Amino acid sequence: MSRLARYTAIVVLFAAGLGLLAVYALNIDYSAPGDTEVRDAAAAGGFGTVCIVGALLLVSGRLRSATRSFRFPPVWLGVVALVLAALAGVAAAHWDWLPLAEPFIAVVALAGLFSAIARLVTRWPGAQSLQRRDIALATVWGMFAATGIALVLQLAFAILAVLAVLGGLALVDTSLASSLIDRLSGTGGLDDLGSDLLQTLTVAVGVSAMYAIVAPLTEEFTKLLGVIFVQRSKVTTGYSAFVTGACVGLGFSVVETLGYALAAGTAWPWLLLVRAPVAFIHVTASALAGYGWHRQRTTGGFRIVPYLIAAVLVHGAWNGLTVSAMLISASLEDPNNPPVGAILGVLLIVALLATVLTGCIAWTILAARKLGREANLSIQQRLQEPRQALDISSIRLERSEVRGITT
Length: 407
Prior knowledge:
- It contains 14 helices and no strands.
- By secondary structure, it is an all-alpha fold.
């Protein structure tokens, strides 16, 4: 990353963070902490704090110590910070501390989550080859660049899909398109349509495609760009590419989780705790793609393709199962008395989600362990090569031979 680009990013993030924090400070109504406007202000404060953190990470990349390896705190410390912050969030929501405390407590909780998972993938001996600068840059890319680019791509796809539907209806019958536009633009919009809209086959397929195909494709593509951007001019190991991908995924997950949490009202601490393990979905997928890029870079060909496909499939499986549960819930006529088939379907989906998540956690930890030890062995071999090349006895023999020849 060039000096100009880095300084520009730092200034932009600081300015955005200070602006959002100003919005937060000027729009808080301490007398009505539960109002929607107050929650919107709290969300602005949370994202403003994240922008400041991102700018500080970029600043840390310019320090003299930025080329040294970085050691995260123990896993238990990150987990404790996450749980205690979530409990503090429950207290804040219960006793109406929300306008002052919620966004900052949420950021502390997510910092604990980031630290715990980052420690799990960097606790192996090969981590000495990692640089603080690369970890900071990968995290910032995941937090801002990957989320921003992916959001733009997804919005573009959604707009094109809606235009395609309206165009198809207009070709069949102009009144159908006009009727749909009137219903969507009426009071309440999609809220009035509710489950009726989700029960239509076209909308259900569109929502499923958006969550299970478009979102994984765009997000894994933008996260892979972060790995390439950070490691493009370096002599990488499989472990460094793996950890870079994991940090990009962690940065992405932190911002995504913060958005979901601050939009969940007073239940945000519980949502944050439930979604905390889901960070491994992003970590696993982006680490897979990052390692695949390293394989292609070192061996040539199209080695990245199966790894990128695996990353998209992992992410798509999680999103697809989640949206399936949403569609089943939306199809219930009486949520208080669901049919047996719907209950069994939801239980099966929960079991599959648990299987996918457990597999991601296990694979990430085991792969980090294997690649970390391989990287450490490679470093030790490179350190021993000069000693092996310098054979002192042979040098002495050559000198004696020279003396014999000269005498």
